Amino acid sequence: MARLADYFVLVGYDPGKRGSGDGQGQILQRFPEKDWEDNPFPQGIELFCQPSGWQLFTERNPPTFFVAVLTDINSERHYCACFTFWEAVESAQPQSHPRNGEGEEEEEEPSSPVQPTQLFAPKSLVLVSRLDHAEVFRNSLGLIYTIYVDGLSVSLENVIGNLLTCTIPITGGAQRTISLGAGDRQVIQTPINDSLPVSSCSVALLFRQLGITNVLYLFCAALTEHKILFLSSSYQRLTDACRALLALMFPLKYSFTYVPILPAQLLEVLSTPTPFIIGVHSIFQSETQELLDVVIADLDGGTVNVPECVHISLLPEPLLQQTREALSMVLDPELEVADLAFPPSTISASSLKMQDKEIRAVFLRLFAQLLQGYRWCLHIIRIHPEPVIRFHKAAFLGQRGLTEDDFLTKVLEGMAFAGFVTERGAPYRSIDLFDELVAYEVKRMHAEEGNKQKILRHIKELAEKLYKNENPYPAVTMHKVQKPTEGCHLRLHQKPFPRLDEGTVQWIIDQATAKLQTAPPAVKAEKKCMVPSGPPIAAIMERNGNALANSARRLEVVRNCISYVFENKMLEAKKLFPAVLRAMKGRAARHCLTQELNLHVQQNRAVLDHQQFDFIIRMMNCCLQDCTAMDEHGIAAALLPLVTAFCRKLSPGITQFAYSCVQEHVVWTNIQFWEAMFYCDVQNHIRALYLDNNEENHTDEESTEGPQEAKSALEIASEQLRLWPTMSRDKQQELIQKEESTVFSQAIHYANRMSYLLLPLDTSKNRLLRSSGLGDVESVSNSFVTNSIAGSVAESYDTESGFEDAESSDVANYVVRFINRFVDKVCTESGVTNEHLKGLHVMIPDIVQMHIETLDAVHRESKRLPPIQKPKLLRPNLLVGEECVMEGLRVYLMPDGREEAAGGNIGGPPLLPAEGAIFLTTYRIIFKGTPTDPLVGEQVVIRSFPIASLTKEKKIAIQAQADQFIQESLQLRSCTFQLLKIAFDEEVASDSAEVFRKHLHKLRYPQHVRGTFAFTVGQSPKQAMQPKVKEKNPSLRTLSKNLVKNAKKTIGRQYVTRKKYTPPTWEQRSSQHFPEDNEDEISVSEEMDRSTLTPTTTVKPSDKMTINHLVERACCRDYQRMGLGTLSSSLTRSKNEPFRISTVNRMYAICRSYPGLLIVPQSIQDNTIQRISRCYRQNRFPVVCWRNSRTKAVLLRSGGLHGKGVVGLFKSQNAPTAGPSQTDSTSLEQEKYLQAVINSMPHYADASGRNTLSGFTSAHMSSSGKWGSIRASGRMSSYALNMEIGSRLAGKDLLGGQHNGTPSEASFLRQHRASLYIIGDKSQLKGVKPDPLQHWEVVPIEVFDVRQVKASFKKLMKACVPGCSSTDPSVTYLRSLEESEWLSQIHKILQISVLVVELLDTGSSVLVSLEDGWDITTQVVSLVQLLSDPYYRTLEGFRLLVEKEWLSFGHRFSHRGAQTLAGQSSGFAPIFLQFLDCVHQIHLQFPMEFEFSQYYLKFLSYHYVSNRFRTFLLDSDYERIELGLLYEEKGERKSQQVYKSIWDYIDRLNKKAPVFFNYMYAPEDGEVLRPYSNISNLKVWDYYTEETLSEGPSYDWELAQGQLEHVEEADRQDTSAPQTKRKIIWPCYDNRSRVEPDAISKLLEELHNLEMELGQIPERWKDTWDKVKASQRTEARQEGSRTPSSLLMSSGLSHHRRSLGVYLQESGVGSTLNLSLDSDTSSTSTPSSGKQGGRKSTSTLYSQFQMSESENRSYEGSLYKKGAFMKPWKPRWFVLDKTKHQLRYYDSRMDTECKGVIDLAEVESITPGTPTMGAPKTVDEKAFFDLKTTKRVYNFCAQDVQLAQQWIDRIQSCLSDA
User: Fold this and answer.
1) Which of 210, 1146, 1217, 1764 is most solvent-facing, going by the fewest CB within 10 Å?
2) Are 372 and 402 in contact (CB under 8 A)?
3) Residue 1468 is inside which H or E element, if any?
4) How far apart are CA 222 and CA 204, in angstroms?
């Protein structure tokens, strides 16, 4: 029983303290006056009666009632029910001087009944109680007020006395009727179970005021310990809201500051740092504004304001969503049926009281789901004298799979949950609704998930129970309490509340207490029982469990591997090992590992040999490395006993245990982990303790109970607690003693265990706990400081104890302090006696010291172990002449960002990381080794690249494997798109790695180009510097030297007009332009020494030699092919030829970077050229490099103009000039030069008038020029050519109406076009006015400069070969590819080239004059020629093109490729690579137009940077001559094996094998290609992305070939095994073209092998191919219909010319050719061939195969031919074909199918023959003749002698022609 009310207090206004503004209250009377012993009187009641302050009012307010809550020092809550009414104040003018005496006041009152100054003061009746019966209090105080107001004849003292002596039962659902002796009656119902909160309607009201989401926010904020403030203008509502929030938190209890109504005087409480739930009246809202960390809920406005700096963790999904849905079902049942056409009429929400319980039911369910299975994570450490219980938080989170969840983690760490564990952890107590729910209903809740009806039913059931708990007796008799009459508070003459007689009240109270003392004590019948645990978490979780990790196959692998280790089958184990390590990512596999190892320990298999030990340690480490410091899944816990069990013998008496090798994990430094482990063990021991007792006492009962092993510790504890009161005192003491010593012994055990895992093997190093400095334990649990010694030394472990100087103390001290701290904590918690604790503190340093001593011995011995065998280093194959500079260093090749090799996106075992060695040779860096993954251990991995292609080398830090720390790592990147990421092995000394880097650097950047591999090859490096020996054949060398000397002389002599000026040296001149001076730009007239440069008509004899050699150069051969002039003396030179070959530069005097012979207009004299050249950068004046054979338009190239030169060139002629300046004369000569070019064009003569484009557009256009600009910047830039210029030059914008941005039709230029277009750089041509009188037109375009190419290339390399796999999803391959802008640059180059091709094709000449004329100019000019002239698309022509445009015209290969030390700073700029990429793009679009294959382009791309050949070294012909490279003696090249020129190498290779040949080559005559250039049409070149790990790059042919034969032999030996046809081809490992060659190569190869077997001399592949083509042709002609075999040459493919390629693949059976045309049907939408700008109709594909043979029949007739051995003579129809250079024969004249071909190239002699057996009888024997070829002798016989003679002559003439 308990008192209904403890105190009755009367509080009034204190008139004495009025002066301070706000008044104060004072306690007028209180009853009883003495404090109760069990319950002292609470302080500060007067503050809470008027929370907003005591004030006087000018009118009477109606009485108010509210309940405030006070919390006393023992955190007991006191409910203060305040009933306030207003009374008139005595004095009239309180603000002036107070008046004495009440008499005056009473006299005044009647005279002025309604005075404005009449003031009223509040007075409060207060009941203080520990029970929360608000309604009863309201009624009781109301009754007292009524008696006072209405003057009832009842003594107030009696009523108050009765009120204070009334006692009621606390719980148990009793019903009690009370009366206060004023004829009243009240029924009090007590809740059945007082642990459930009573909420009446408050929860429902809270939801009504704030809404679902807001309340959920408040709920989560309260649970995660945030500060919460309620605002309202009603005190009662504040109390209700606070009460509601607490009710929602059940079963957790709120333990922080809780003040539902905070008085104004105490507002500063709001800035307290601790969490709180407080209510404040809204008038103080402004004062709450500056609270930054408080969640403010405004009940009246319905808002919840969460400040920015507060982050509220919400419930974990799916619980949050489920709770929301359930709440909305309860609060808004109409929502479900709102959309129905016929909504049920009956649906409505429950009554408010019921709704309140339903909401609470939802939250009760929520807690049951959140905390399900919590009892399985309780550790009971002590049972007697009272239970001590701990909760294993990490295990709970781990088993629930919510380790990452913010909300639950915070809740479990919070105070409320700690209280929950203390209160509900006890195993033996009375239980309530929550205990039942969490134990029995969780399964049901899981089952009903998602079924709304069932959930709602469950909620209603729970709500019923809650309601029943509050209102156990539904039919309650009516209360009867008198209420005051209406409006009584307004009565004017109300007497003040009377003073009560203390004596009477006190007497009543005393009477009652005396009566109570005599009454027998009421015993609360507590129904205690064992608390049910409910299903373990695992059983619940499995339903939605991690099926993914639990694949049984993986666990099988783990088990097998472990059993192999213990059975000593190491090879088997090694194979499974990587799979085991991968499986360890899954939790199940880790548990499986601990269980399996545990079994082996139990079987006494804990002593292992070295290899087994190594395996077990690696598995343990792998298992632990994914554990967090919390060890949620109990992995570290399970391994803890194992690491002290497994061991190996190092030497007699010295054993190394596993723990010394698994210390690197953060979990060991986490105090919480150790505590949890300790408690777990203690619990097991205590359980054992009582189990043993039971066995002694109840042996007989046991059999009936069944196996009692199953009892959990909690069950045993509850049993013990039940018996406890019945035990004798001694028995109790004994048990307490036993438990205490159990705990104590465990503490000693753990001190040992901790020292094992905390002391490092090498204690001499000050390296404690690699993970962190054991600093503040909190930080350890969630931060992972990297492994550093510094880290641990810097933070002193125990900041409180003040050991700051960490260095002075050693590891031992740390460990001792760490263990001490642990022991203190657990022992005090588990009640170990003080003596024992002191004893422990003494023992710990000894334990640590002992352990250190044993470790020293182990450490010493473990160093002596033989190292584990490493794989032997494999030697790489080297080229002829390539030598090793450094022997192999053992390294690991680590995987980079390319995934294939690491087993990434395509699966398969990872080839990387691989272990092997890195070799440095004079030519390459080579890694060769084997993968560390044993499943692919037999494969060899090779990655290499030429040293010359190295672009970046940086040191990086990587860890090779979990258990190896690797000291140094390098990342080497090459511009052949290769990356070597290598980590040096421990055995490699760091200085060796340094030496490696130095050598690498020296080889990469030699001092001079002579130091490169192409020069040093084949000679030992020492000889390179020896003095020169006299040459045998001096002629050429000396000649070239003289030539250079002369050139130097000439350049030296210059005289100056106005300013002294010395030209910059060659190196500087490339980068620096002439001084830009405004008055006179080019003030040097570099007139060369007259003697050397008189325009001689004949060449001096001494120069003859040079000239001959110059004539042999590529350019010259090409000029002659195009008929661009001959090199004859001026007398014989035909005047009508427009161009001549000038020798003006033969000494390289005018322009060093140009070739010696140049094509210039016929009419221009050499000395003019001399002057013109000065207007151009680098003196690169315009020269002709190609002429269109049809339109006779020419293509010229030059450097850009110097600044002013441009303006000079285009200056309007009548501009006033200050005197005849030099600039003028040159610009005139320049104009003359350009005019001469224009005059050379045949159509110029007929052109009527000066119809340039400009003539038709206004002469004064904006400076942007009518070309607008071809923008360089835009990603998908289009030609923004203005509309007035004919199409693209006329009518159409380039991209309009076009497919794919192909150029538009050829009719695009009307008559109005300039004769010469000058394509110049926009930035140079600023302000150029178009001149209507000129015949030329300037096209300003924006181009990117070399810097941009460099930057773009760097990004491209990073995109194609990323250094490490990116974690950021936004950095994808395609994104980074786009950002590199490489494709936009290619698009740009192609675009300009196509424009030039169009112009040339329509008969205008074009001068490309960009930058210095050697980068972009070269790219454009070469592409234009390639697109316009089919000759350059052959192997021979392409070689010529590169030699002419790139080598002769001085593209600076050495400078751009940074080949020497000088170029190191400028870096690598892949201009030539970009050109090859463009060619590759065109090749893809026109696969039938090129004689060479894609491989040829890749080959060039690789070798132009590899420095294996000399071809691409140096910057110009002049430099090559200077080194004597250009004219090598004919004889010397053949003798050596080493090829100095890449072209020779390619020729030789091409003769051997068809690698460079494109089988689809079937050109159309004179076809001009116009490729699409849009980025969408461009493909990333596979050269950038593919690699072959089996052999390294396949561009050094000899190496690759050598390997292949070697492999085949190995295959042949093993014939016993069954042979399978199946091949596995790895995209990044195998060389596809080699392993799975295309059909034609395969057939050629088979033919070759057959010929070898038959002993014939094998035919060259090219001849075979030509024969096949010829026979195909005849076949096709004969049959008319197409057979599959002739498909390749058939004509139905007309509009597939621009196809995506025809792939040849070998079909499964035999070797027929399957041709799949891979171009989708959409290709028909490309402009069909007839329209392609003037291109010849391609209606027949491969038209050359369709030509009637007659065109090629030079002579034909019938001859008899003797068959092969033993065959008769037969007449055949023979055809001699001069064009094809062959003799074909047919069965008869009409026959179309060729029966055989004799290649005339193979004919050795033709002699008169003799008739043999079986020859035709009638023929003269002189008519016989024999044809001897390399393979056999053919015998022929003609009809008569004349015919025979004719045949012999014809064949002879054919042979001599050849």
Assistant:
1) 1764
2) no
3) none
4) 18
Q: Which residues contact 704 (CB under 8 A, 6 or more apart)?
A: none
- For residue 1035, is pLDDT > 60? no
Long-range CB pairs of 42-48, under 8 A, 24+ apart, other chains included: 42/70, 42/72, 42/78, 42/80, 42/128, 44/70, 45/9, 45/11, 45/70, 45/80, 45/126, 45/128, 46/11, 47/263, 47/265, 47/266, 48/80, 48/82, 48/261, 48/263
Question: What's the pLDDT tens digit per position in 973-989?
Answer: 999 999 998 888 877 88
What is the rounded distance in angstroms from the CA atom of residue 1498 to the CA atom of residue 1496? 5
C-alpha pair distances (Å), 1515 with each of 1411, 1422, 1449, 1458: 16, 17, 9, 11
The answer, yes or no, to whether residue 875 has pLDDT greater than 50, is: yes
Q: How far apart are CA 360 and CA 1394, in angstroms?
A: 78
Q: How far apart are CA 828 and CA 814, in angstroms?
A: 21
CA 1770 to CA 1763: how far, in whole Å?
A: 7
Q: Which residues of 110-145 are buried (b: 16+ CB within 10 A; e: fewer)?
A: eeeeeeeebbbbbbbbbbbbbbbbbebbbbbbbbbb
Instruction: Please give the pLDDT value at position 1574.
Output: 92
pLDDT for the residue 486: 75
Q: How far apart, in whole angstroms, are the C-alpha atoms of residue 1587 and residue 1632?
A: 10
Inter-residue contact 1727 to 1299 (CB < 8 Å): yes
Q: How far apart are the first and last CA of the chain?
A: 131
Phi, psi at residue 177, to the nearest 5°? -100, 130
Is residue 1778 within 8 A of residue 1768, CB to CB? The reply is: no
Distance (Å, rounded) from C-alpha 937 to C-alpha 1441? 47
* Surface-to-core class of residue 1120, CB atoms within 10 Å of its CB (0-12 exposed, 13-18 middle, 19+ buried): middle
Which residue from 877, 952, 979 is spatially nearest to 921, judged by alpha carbons?
877
1208 vs 227, more confident: 227
DSSP state at residue 1347 = H
Bridge partners, 296 (sequence order): 229, 305
What radius of gyration do the chain's Cα atoms show?
Answer: 52
Tokens of 1792: 């179309």
Three-class secondary structure of residue 1258 per DSSP: coil
The predicted structure's pLDDT at residue 89: 80
Distance CA 372, CA 841 (A): 40
Residue 1647 binned pLDDT confidence (cut-offs 50, 70, 90): confident
CA–CA separation, 1834 and 1828 (whole Å): 6
Do 192 and 171 meet the contact criterion of CB atoms below 8 Å apart?
yes
Contact predicate 32/503, CB 8 Å? no
d(CA 1007, CA 1788): 71
Picking from 614, 617, 622, the residue whose alpha carbon sits closest to that of residue 584 is 622
Residue 1573, C-beta contacts closer than 8 angstroms, at least 6 positions apart: 1301, 1387, 1390, 1391, 1394
pLDDT for res 967: 62
* Nearest by Cα to 497 from 88, 65, 93: 88
CB distance 7 to 32 below 8 Å: yes
Q: Is the pTM for the entire model greater than 0.85?
A: no
pLDDT in tens, 1520-1539: 888 877 655 444 444 344 56
- Whole-angstrom CA distances from 188 to 136, 178, 783, 1462 are 8, 8, 56, 102
Tell me, what's the pLDDT at 1112? 62
Place of tokens 């390098």: 970
Q: Residue 530: which pLDDT band, with cuts at 50, 70 and 90?
A: confident
Residue 702, amino acid: E
Q: Which of 877-881, 1136-1140, 1247-1251, 1538-1542 has the lowest mean pLDDT?
A: 1247-1251
Q: What is the DSSP letter of 39?
A: B
